[in-house]
Design brief:
Strand content of chain A: 25-35%
Number of domains of chain B: 1
Number of strands of chain A: 22
Largest interface: A-B, 45 and 40 residues
Order of helices and strands of chain B: HHHHHHHHHHH
Radius of gyration of chain B: 21 Å
Helix content of chain B: over 70%
Shape of chain B: elongated
Strand content of chain B: under 5%
Distance between the termini of chain A: 29 Å
Oligomer: heterodimer
Chain lengths: ~550, ~290
């Protein structure tokens, strides 16, 4: 039932059903709705909340035009980003030593070494110009998510469906498929003394990955079903290594250091089963033609049955935060929701406390002795109004924000329609639950000043501290335990465990999953409502 | 409100008798300025002193400042053998970001509570010179906040002195310690006290302008936090700099003791920006007080 339909559906006189404890809940809600809508300041407060969010949101979405080259800027600089099978933006750059496999079959190798070299020359070159002097001044170092091993891919097109089993820099053996799926196998680093045997088997659409320390005892790491895999697939050996970024902490900010890196792996004991018509290896630098993360340089050598592959880039989802592409998320304009939230909290807290100040509470309770119902009705009315406010702000701010960001050359990470709806409606729901929390705290404290301060300090201050003065670990705990956790409902791109992301809360990466974060906020609101209901019953008005 | 009912009528009547010979005449008989200001100060002091919430709020401000500051310090650690670029003075005084909220509440309440109870009409009858009234309130609120701020800032520095060396912030990585004999540290310490005083004046101005406690508190806190929240999300360095320079919280730059060249605005200039915000808010509040009916 929307507040608007109640307002026009019933005469005001229904309030005079007063004194009747059995009065329908809808008439209590109706009475509260009339109170809400007839105080001009409260309605203005909600409009101010929506306008503040909109104004700052649209400003935030695009305030930096990207330049690429002497004459190009804005939309012309948008990168061509490959899209994975799940519709997500991906990075798909690696060196591929392949041959076609036109039936079911299997591929087995032994990996004896994985070495990585890191560029010391800082960031990659400007977008569109390719990296500068990629192999100069590189030094040996560990890249945790450098990857090398065997892969079966639908084609050599970037973003195509694949399954791979690999050794990594410091995360052991992994089986990964279609960019977002990751399973762990044998732990420990690969070396001459501790080689890793890897095997992929294909039966139609189903690909299974195995690992072994000795080539005799095999363990299943994972199984992938790649829907729509063509009859002839490309299979073989690969190596890649993501840009190496390190955040040098600095009070109130951070400097980013790093650059592209390169992985070189040695594999031998290569065994092929099934129908491999080409009977020889071809080397391909997938995505290695200038405009891609990494050095753009890759190579392979064969000698005595061993293959040495080196490559640079990554096979992973693209995440927000500092990186090769200037990226933005759809929820970026909504990150200032806290500013609008302050206005909503003020209105919501006053919605209850104003009754005490004016003595109206005694009239209200004489008319409707069911105190729990009055509280519930107030919560419903305020939540409805706050939801509407949040929804209007987000539904307008997000599309404008996306188009502004694109016009300025920022790549907006695509998400599914369902995710977009969750971000929009979830933001509105977060505002609504925060408003319920404010109503409940208002009912507990009975003083508007105290209630407004308490709720703002509970929601806005933790968030502010975690994006400014707190170090990462502490900030994560603050965003798990305080009502500020609710902001997680806005996060559209998940935190992938296998992608080193530097985006903290300010980059839109929160420690809890969207619904868990929202749940924490709901928990606070529920507890506050319960305390308020008990206190209302126990204390005289 | 313990002592209020017994003392209030006497004080108000007394002040009323002297200040307003004819109840209607705002411009009647100019009083010797000194006596009028002394009466205004005395009356406002009585109000502030006898409301129990003032003491609670000041104690709460100290507790929140020191508590949040200690928590932030406890969360930060400089691992051995690494270079940490943290500004230890700023770290010790981080609790001010939370404590300032309570200062805002106290200062806003000093004026808005008069409106919510209707007391303002009695006050203005007794003291028709509205500018003087606001000045008296400002002076007393600022004095109270400054006194409490000395305790809060002092205790925060003490906490920093106790906690930080245990977290790797020792002389080895280049931290000078938190000696008040060090010029920048002394400036940060005194400046933080002044910062809280200016926040009180800013909030008092907003309270006078808005008159409703909840809306005024929301406005004051919103104004303080708006700039840093937006700044955290802005990617454009030009705008980042602008937001940092012109926000009321630019005043917190007074806490910086290292990398002063990297600041968008210098320590004293930042405090000056806050002073301008406070002066503007007081001026707007004072004008509104003069021009509007109570």
């Amino acid at each position: 039932m929307t507040p608007a339909s109640i307002a026009h559906g019933r005469p005001v006189a229904s309030r005079q059903a007063g004194g009747n404890p059995g009065a329908a809940f809808s008439s209590v809600v109706h009475a509260e709705w009339i109170k809400f809508r007839s105080v001009r300041g409260w309605v203005i407060g909600m409009i101010v909340a929506a306008l503040l969010t909109l104004l700052f949101g649209v400003f935030l979405a695009g305030n930096a035009s990207i330049g690429c080259g002497p004459t190009l800027s804005g939309r012309a600089c948008l990168p061509k980003v490959p899209i994975g099978p799940g519709g997500e933006a991906v990075t798909d750059s690696f060196y591929f030593v392949r041959q076609p496999l036109s039936s079911s079959g299997s591929l087995t190798v032994r990996v004896t070494s994985l070495a990585t070299r890191i560029s010391g020359g800082g960031q990659a070159g400007p977008v569109g110009q390719g990296p500068r002097n990629p192999l100069a001044d590189m030094y040996k170092g560990t890249v945790p998510w450098a990857k090398a091993g065997i892969i079966i891919a639908a084609s050599t097109r970037q973003g195509s469906s694949y399954a791979a089993v690999m050794v990594t820099g410091s995360h052991g053996v992994r089986m990964q498929y279609d960019y977002v799926h990751d399973a762990a196998g044998l732990a420990g680093e690969v070396s001459q003394a501790a080689p890793r045997w890897l095997r992929l088997t294909r039966h139609g659409d189903v690909i299974s990955g195995y690992d072994s320390a000795d080539g005799k005892h095999w363990e299943l790491v994972g199984t992938a079903t790649l829907a729509g895999l063509p009859g002839t697939v490309q299979a073989g050996l690969f190596a890649t290594s993501p840009s190496y970024n390190k955040l040098q902490p600095f009070f109130g900010g951070a400097h980013i250091q790093g650059g592209p890196s390169q992985a070189t792996a040695v594999m031998d004991n290569i065994t092929l089963r099934g129908h491999w018509p080409a009977a020889r290896w071809t080397g391909d630098n997938i995505g290695g033609h200038g405009n891609s993360p990494g050095t753009g340089v890759g190579d392979f050598r064969q000698s005595d049955g061993a293959v040495t592959v080196s490559g640079s880039g990554n096979i992973a989802p693209l995440v927000p935060g500092p990186g090769f592409y200037p990226t933005a998320t759809i929820e970026r304009p909504l990150s200032v929701i806290f500013i609008g939230l302050i206005a909503v909290v003020v209105v919501a807290a006053m919605f209850f406390t104003a009754e005490y100040r004016r003595g109206l509470i005694r009239t209200t309770l004489a008319a409707m002795p069911g105190r729990g119902r009055v509280l519930a009705a107030k919560a419903v009315v305020v939540a409805g109004a706050a939801f509407l406010t949040g929804l209007v702000a987000s539904v307008i701010a997000v599309p404008i924000g996306i188009s502004r960001a694109r016009n300025q050359g920022q790549y907006v990470l695509p998400v599914s329609v369902l995710t977009e709806m969750r971000v929009l409606a979830g933001t509105a729901a977060m505002v609504a639950v925060a408003a319920i929390l404010a109503v409940a705290v208002g009912a507990i404290l009975r003083r508007s000043a105290a209630a407004v301060t308490t709720v703002i300090v509970l929601i806005v201050l933790p968030f502010l501290l975690s994006v400014t003065v707190l170090p990462d670990g502490a900030a994560d705990w603050v965003l798990r335990l305080t009502p500020a956790a609710g902001i997680a409902i806005e996060q559209s791109i998940p935190n992938y465990s296998d992608v080193s992301s530097l985006a903290g809360p300010a980059g839109g990466a929160y420690p809890l999953t969207p619904w868990a974060g929202f749940g924490v906020l709901c928990l606070y609101a529920t507890v506050a409502l319960a305390v308020a209901a008990v206190l209302l019953r126990l204390k005289d008005a | 409100m313990r002592a209020l009912p017994s003392e209030r009528p006497g004080a108000a009547a007394q002040a009323g008798n002297r200040a307003v010979p004819e109840p209607a005449g705002r411009h009647a008989m100019p009083q010797p300025a000194l006596t009028a200001s002394r009466d205004a100060l005395r009356a406002e002091w009585l109000k502030l002193r006898t409301v129990s919430s003032s003491a609670w709020l000041l104690a709460g401000m100290v507790a929140l400042t020191v508590g949040v500051g200690a928590a932030v310090m406890a969360a930060n650690r400089c691992p051995a053998g690494t270079t940490c670029l943290e500004d230890t003075t700023k770290l010790s005084l981080a609790g001010i970001q939370a404590g300032q909220v309570v200062v805002a509440v106290l200062a806003v309440q000093a004026v808005t509570s008069e409106y919510s109870t209707g007391m303002i009409r009695t006050t203005l009858t007794a003291m028709p010179r509205r500018g003087l009234l606001l000045a008296a309130k400002a002076l007393l609120v600022a004095a109270l906040v400054l006194a409490a701020a000395v305790v809060a800032v002092g205790a925060s520095m003490l906490a920093g002195w106790l906690i930080l060396p245990g977290h790797g912030y020792t002389a080895a990585p280049g931290f000078t310690g938190l000696s008040l004999a060090d010029g920048p540290v002394l400036r940060a310490t005194i400046g933080s006290v002044v910062y809280l005083g200016l926040i009180a004046l800013l909030s008092l101005g907003i309270g006078t302008l808005v008159r409703d406690s909840a809306v005024a508190i929301g406005t004051a806190i919103g104004l303080l936090y708006l700039f840093p929240v937006v700044e955290a999300f802005v990617s454009n360095p030009v705008w980042q700099r602008r937001l940092e320079r012109y926000s009321p919280m630019a005043g917190l730059n007074i806490q910086a003791t290292t990398d002063l060249k990297g600041l968008a605005i210098g320590p004293w200039a930042g405090l000056g920006v806050l002073a301008i915000w406070s002066a503007a808010a007081l001026l707007a509040g004072g004008l509104a007080l003069r021009l509007r009916d109570a």
